Amino acid sequence: MKRIKIALLHLLPIVGDIRYNQELIERSVKLASNKEVDWIITPELSVSGLQFRRRIGIDWIECQPNSWMNRFCQLVKSIDTTVFLGSPEKGEDGKYYNSVFVIDSNGQIIGKQRKINVLSDGWSTAGKVIEPIIIDDIHVGIMICADAYTTNVAEPLYQKGAEIIIAPASWGPGLHGPNGEWEQRSIETGLPIIVCNRTGEDETVSFWQAESSLIKNGERIFTHQSKQSAIITFEWDIERQQLHSAQIEVEYIE
């Protein structure tokens, strides 16, 4: 029976403050590892914040792994878990991408997903590859924020054998906020969708009421919003497609 203990890092990053965000991620990952989790998930662009371009531009973005990523990979190895990390990257083609990297318990980057639906980002190029990543013998799809708007990411992931979809996001309520997209994708694919969102605010977007959620068959099994960074921990039964336990643990990060 496949059971995965998962920690969602519902973080409060500071837009454009790369070092602060990196330290917040490192501290949060260490705290989550104390719960003996298998996977740790960060929000979309947890390293930079969503609207970083307004403050610091894009020239700082590097090819990955850069020096910090290499150090972070060693940290992940030391805690023997797998981390989904949302970060900008410069591609081998010189273009910029909104990406999620999967770092396994050996400290290796075993895969990444580049955001497909990037029209609202204004700085990143659309990714071209949509493929599940095999983690702990589980086929995992990654759907980044606005990639949930249509079926063009979730459906190919399902068709290619994904058993679960991880959805890192920086998506708060409002005029263009989420309006049932994650629920609809879960109905269409029949797959659980795990949304790791964030809190705080950027230049023009508020995330104070943004929600991290576990969604199955169009229903939110649980949801979380908070004014400060938090670690949300639960255990998912892959084979039965249900929570192993009804207990959802929330720990706030000071």
Give the topology string: H per helix, E per strand.
EHEHHEEEEEHEHEEEEEE
The name of the CATH architecture is 4-Layer Sandwich
What's the gyration radius in Å?
A: 16 Å
Largest sheet data:
8 strands, mixed
The helix content is: 10-25%
Unreliable spans: none
Q: How many structural domains in the coordinates?
A: 1
* CATH C-level: Alpha Beta
Distance between the termini: 36 Å
- Assign the CATH topology: Nitrilase/N-carbamoyl-D-aminoacid amidohydrolase
CATH superfamily: Carbon-nitrogen hydrolase
| Total beta strand runs | 14
Number of helices: 5
- The average pLDDT is 96
Percent of residues in beta strands? 25-35%
- Helix and strand content put the structural class at alpha/beta
Overall 3D form: globular
GO molecular function: hydrolase activity, acting on carbon-nitrogen (but not peptide) bonds, in linear amides
InterPro entries: Aliph_Amidase/BUP, C-N_Hydrolase, C-N_Hydrolase_sf
Organism: Peribacillus asahii
Protein name: Carbon-nitrogen hydrolase family protein
Account of the 3D structure:
By secondary structure, this protein is an alpha/beta fold. The protein has one domain (3-252): Carbon-nitrogen hydrolase (Nitrilase/N-carbamoyl-D-aminoacid amidohydrolase, 4-Layer Sandwich), CATH 3.60.110.10. The protein is built from five helices and 14 strands. The protein has helices at residues 18-33, 53-56, 67-79, 151-159, 181-189, and strands at residues 3-10, 39-41, 82-90, 96-103, 109-114, 133-135, 138-142, 164-168, 193-196, 212-216, 219-224, 230-237, 242-243, 249-252. Strands 1, 2, 3, 4, 5, 12, 13 and 14 form an eight-stranded mixed β-sheet that branches. It has a six-stranded mixed β-sheet with strand order 6-7-8-9-10-11, with helices on one face. The longest helix has 16 residues, at 18-33. The termini are far apart. Residues 4-238 form the CN hydrolase domain. GO terms for molecular function: hydrolase activity, acting on carbon-nitrogen (but not peptide) bonds, in linear amides.
